[in-house]
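Worked example 2:
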Amino acid sequence: MNFIAIDFETANSNRSSACSMGVAIVENGKLIETEHIFINPVPDYYDRFNTSLHGIDDSHTHDKKTFKQQWNDFKKYFDNQTVIAHNAAFDLSVLRYCLDASRLKYPDLEYHCTCRLSQVTLDLPSHTLADVSKHFKIKLKHHNAESDAKAAALIALKLCDKFKADSIQQLSTSLGFKFGKIVSQTKTYRPFSKK
């Protein structure tokens, strides 16, 4: 089972304003690596509300490269990959907005949402990342992109184990979900959704 979990934090209400990205890499069913990357946001300003959530401001990113300048390093996490996120609709929209703002070609990828999967498998009052992490006893520093990505990866692994699924694809299919997709050639996007 191989996939990459991601999480974005944004500087302001613009979806193109990614200011940090967390990555968690799963290979052969094991979490092998995590990474936290600061990004100089576009547009380059911080809303107080966003900073109050994640603690990031201009002092963290003013000397960092933009998404466009870092895309050659980021591409390996997305191109021809299986990507997961908790509330993937948000994180994949941030990716698309950043690519559009940078006038970059879309990667080909398939994606899955641990929030949606949790909603149909776990009887919890709420399915936020914090609540699902607590349910599975996963340590979380919420709104730290690396910690959020790691938690999403561990939730995916826990759900696959719970339902004896050999892959996130098998789990999603067994629960009646269509995989989300981004297709580079046609620059199209298909949401992760119930069939």
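The mean pLDDT is 97. Strands lie at 3-10, 18-27, 30-38, 81-85, 109-113, 177-178, 180-183, 188-190, 193-194.
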